Amino acid sequence: MTKKERFAYVISYFEQHAPNAETELIYDNPYQLLVAVILSAQCTDKRVNMTTPAIFDQYPDVYSLSKATFDDLFPLVRSISYPNNKTKHLIGMANMVVDDFGGEIPSTVPELVKLPGVGRKTANVITSVVHHQPNMAVDTHVFRVSARLGLTTNATTPLQTEMQLLKYIPKEKVHVAHHWLILHGRYICLARSPKCEECGLRPVCKYYQSIIRGNQLSLPKY
């Protein structure tokens, strides 16, 4: 099977089984999504969704957040991983958005990565989710699933994974493909115990064919 054929199979499968895949972060506008994504680094979406309502209640927009003090915001962020850094990042982000972008959340990756706490992955998420731009955010799930399926080859960094995926995924599908791979990694293609028997992508999955099925075929017969 060629790389192009494998991508076509995977895309067709997800279009049938998860046509409306979307982020599990709860948000109402770009400001809320940016806050949530910054908080989600090395933290579960479930925990972030439990934390953000209190933040948005006290700081409903970027202007109010820009006026927050560390001591006021930290208690609301305390339950999130790396709360000290993330508290500082949120305040710094809000101040830069107000001072440099007129209070509007930037809509391009080069602008977004200038903000404290915003790397390429976060910027890709914002532009992909809010504006449906063909930007592929690569987190641990996307990295793992892409390699196991054989969508990527010898990709050792998130950027290499991103570039290989963008080469074969049609631009108009990139924004939803991001969620396909994340959710598949979150619920089926788990890091330690992938649920291969439940996975409809087994026919094209290099991991299943070489590791799981290979082990089964090599078992001794008695």
Automatic annotation (TrEMBL):
Cofactors demanded by this protein: [4Fe-4S] cluster
All residue ranges annotated as the HhH-GPD domain in the record: 39-187
Catalytic activity: 2'-deoxyribonucleotide-(2'-deoxyribose 5'-phosphate)-2'-deoxyribonucleotide-DNA = a 3'-end 2'-deoxyribonucleotide-(2,3-dehydro-2,3-deoxyribose 5'-phosphate)-DNA + a 5'-end 5'-phospho-2'-deoxyribonucleoside-DNA + H(+)
Note describing how the cofactor binds: Binds 1 [4Fe-4S] cluster.
Name of this protein: Endonuclease III
Species in which this protein is naturally found: Chitinophaga horti
Role, per record: DNA repair enzyme that has both DNA N-glycosylase activity and AP-lyase activity. The DNA N-glycosylase activity releases various damaged pyrimidines from DNA by cleaving the N-glycosidic bond, leaving an AP (apurinic/apyrimidinic) site. The AP-lyase activity cleaves the phosphodiester bond 3' to the AP site by a beta-elimination, leaving a 3'-terminal unsaturated sugar and a product with a terminal 5'-phosphate.
Enzyme Commission number: 4.2.99.18
Residues at which [4Fe-4S] cluster binds: 189, 196, 199, 205
Keywords assigned: 4Fe-4S, DNA damage, DNA repair, DNA-binding, Endonuclease, Glycosidase, Hydrolase, Iron, Iron-sulfur, Lyase, Metal-binding, Nuclease
